[in-house]
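Bug #77: duplicate submission created two jobs. Keeping one. Sequence:
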Amino acid sequence: MSDTLSAARSAAGSAGVTGATAPEIIVPAPTPTSPPVSPFAGHERPVGTEPLARIEDKTSRIEEKLARSEASMQRVVDRFELASARMGEVALQSDLSAVRTEVSYITRKVRRMPGAGTLLVTAFVTAVLTAIAVVLVLRYVPGALQR
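Kept job's structure:
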């Protein structure tokens, strides 16, 4: 609207009007001839079904939000399952590490144990010493073995 007024003033000034003020021409702003655009522009519905259309629109928006929420929740569940699988693998690896440590400890203990030859020699020496001890007790302490 200010463009129209300034154009009218400049036209009056260029027409040679001096001294007296030229009457201002006021041009009204153009009014829109088209009706306001509604969100249901492509769908022509009777006036009585407009609340129903609003409800349907809100329902569809709620369904879209629910679908997005479900997708987001599924991503969270997938990440949780992946993390729990990783933790299971880590636990298995730590269990395996503990088992390896125990097996190596037992292996060292078994390797330090005497072999079969050493056990046979020890058994023979024990038998001979026991026999000698029994003979000595019978000879020098005659009443020790009787009741």
